[in-house]
Amino acid sequence: VQGKVTAGSLDVHPTEKALVVHYEVEASILGEGGGHVLGERKEGQKIIRVKSLSPSTDVGALARKVVEECKLIPSSRLPQVEQLLYYLQNRKSSPVEGKKKRTAKPRELTPFEGMELNEEASITRVDEYIELLYEGIPEKIRGSALILQLARNPDNLEELLHNEAALGALARVLREDWKQSVELATIIIYIFFCFSSFAQFHGVVSHYKIGALCMSVVEHELKRHDVWREELRKKNKSAPENGSLRRDQDKAVRKYHGLLSKQEQLLRVSLYLLLNLAEDTRTELKMRNKNIVGLLVKVLERDDEELLVLVVSFLKKLSIFLENKNDMAEVDTVERLARLVPCDHEDLLNLTLRLLLNLSFDSGLRAKMVEVGLLPKLTALLGNSNNRQVAMRILYHISIDDRFKGMFVYTDCIPQLMQMLYEHGEEETEAELISICINLAANKRNAQLMCEGNGLKMLMKRALKMKDCLLMKMIRNISQHDGPTKSVFIDYVGDLAAEIRAEEEEEWVLECLGTLANLTIPDLDWELVLKEYNLVPYLKDRLKPGSAEDDLILEVVIMIGTVSMDDACAAMLAKSGIIPALIELLNAQQEDDEFVCQIVYVFYQMVFHQATRDVIIKDTQAPAYLIDLMHDKNAEIRKVCDNTLDIIAEYDEEWGRKIQSEKFRFHNNQWLEMVESRQADESEPYLYDNDNDNDRTDLFYSAGTHTHMLVISSCILNYQVYHNHLKSWYQQIIALVLMNSFFSMMYLKIHTRRDVSAAQSLFHCC
């Protein structure tokens, strides 16, 4: 056999500080005469990492060292190596590289304590190792350990796969003897773990039902651990005083730790095998049916960091499915994870945070995170550059819930977030950072903390300079709170008003306009603002249906409602013809309750002022629209309508009569419908003949009397509503006497004849 290696191209690694050397290996089998009989070519590449490369590194010296140590690079290519290293030295980290996700995963398994052998295994002696599996436990351990040596080399797996005798014997020994020897069980499961590391070998692991066996092993070992711990607790509780008993207790503790170490090795290899098999969702479902989540959560009580990394990785993989997430909620997973935050093991901390992030999509689990005290712990991690992004995403999910926004006040989260915003300068703000700030700004106390010092000044300056819509949304949330926070915005009213122009982006104008609309400050001269920045034409143009997005038009309506609190502003808007535009918009958006409510609120504000009140009552049909909306399904719309109509009725007699008439008509219809439905329910007793009726006096005095009295009560109540139309006390007395006589006559007829039609006539006459 003759081999030849040919150097290929040189290049830089796309993300790491490394050189990539491409090469080609040609293997030839020579014949007896020295000629080529059979040949094969294979391409490969070698990565040469240069982690020591820094701006101060001598590139020439490093290039010479690389060429000397790498036999694949000929000395003639030294200038090219030097040029590539110079490029790596000056290459800036891409945003993707700088912020790439940490993909922490369990460390590869290494030979456990007690598995090392002095002899080296050979693939040609597998049959000898199989024979050892039929001897005693020590021989079985030795034979399986030798096979494990072979299995740890991926090149041997294919040959072992075809040796059914070896695999069958290993599976049999594991099934029969795993309870007798932890070491034997660990070694055999490790062998099958080597197969499970490759998806194409999962079939053989499933064929011998190793996954189900591993589930049984894990469950059994966890129960054994509970027994050990209980025995140790009892010995510690006895509190021995003499030296011999104390020595026995120390011996028991050492024995417990020795057993625990071996058990954790077995658990680790078993769970790692199950994790590999769980790549198949069908296999994962079988594991769930056997309570894999409960077993994993129980292992979270352990202190071995490598085992915990594996368990948390497994739980993180399972947590992406709803059913598994629900299982985790039932077994106090969050409580067990809380003790791991923070921890010194970087990978374990990162995996724990990512698992918590997956769980934080559930509102109940978010509440549990706050309950177990994770909020201050996560806040403390904002200063950790490796885990800041994940911690911030969890905090963002917590900040969505209004119940927990106020709890951020008792941490140093808000000062840290404000500092991060300040440090960003003119760079684009991270989505997670600004999102959590927007949520927290919706809480009054949080907003006050954000405005402390020069907080609001910094936010306004940055938002106006960068035209940052999300930052302005945060400011808009701050502006909605009553109290001292709102008055701080007076200095920025002009800056905000100057941004409300047709030339600006709608999204930007929406946030600026929404911020202004929140500023219900009594001392603010809105008339001066509207005139100086010529806002009235813009507001009027944007009221036209379809002139802009609905969100922007709605903010325009809210803005008009805010400025209408000022008498002069209300008059200016009324003269500009905004009221007819509002009515037109009301017709177009009558199905949108938010639009209707805000437009009615504008009318409510305007009827307070004499100038605009007369315009609304005499020159527009606004009162007629308000009467139509008086009985709307939406309670808020009804409330604003009633308040507005009460003011209109007080100042205008004609509209007052119309409003009162409509209220009476609506009330009367309600009573008619109620009585008719009640009569339909109680009509059955009147189907009896007269003779039976005379014997059944209970029909009249129970159901019948109740119905007639209900009708008459309705008439009296209707009179109480209607008598407001009769302005003269004389007219009221006459009407009352006439109605009393009429009631008496009709009731006598009903009482003597039990005539339901008379009762109906009485009600309709009323």
UniProtKB/TrEMBL annotation:
<dbReference type="GO" id="GO:0005930">
    <property type="term" value="C:axoneme"/>
</dbReference>
<feature type="repeat" description="ARM">
    <location>
        <begin position="577"/>
        <end position="617"/>
    </location>
</feature>
<dbReference type="Pfam" id="PF05804">
    <property type="entry name" value="KAP"/>
</dbReference>
<dbReference type="GO" id="GO:0035869">
    <property type="term" value="C:ciliary transition zone"/>
</dbReference>
<dbReference type="GO" id="GO:0007018">
    <property type="term" value="P:microtubule-based movement"/>
</dbReference>
<dbReference type="InterPro" id="IPR008658">
    <property type="entry name" value="KAP3"/>
</dbReference>
<dbReference type="GO" id="GO:0044782">
    <property type="term" value="P:cilium organization"/>
</dbReference>
<dbReference type="GO" id="GO:0019894">
    <property type="term" value="F:kinesin binding"/>
</dbReference>
<dbReference type="InterPro" id="IPR000225">
    <property type="entry name" value="Armadillo"/>
</dbReference>
<dbReference type="InterPro" id="IPR011989">
    <property type="entry name" value="ARM-like"/>
</dbReference>
<dbReference type="InterPro" id="IPR016024">
    <property type="entry name" value="ARM-type_fold"/>
</dbReference>
<dbReference type="GO" id="GO:0016939">
    <property type="term" value="C:kinesin II complex"/>
</dbReference>
<protein>
    <submittedName>
        <fullName>Kinesin-associated protein 3b</fullName>
    </submittedName>
</protein>
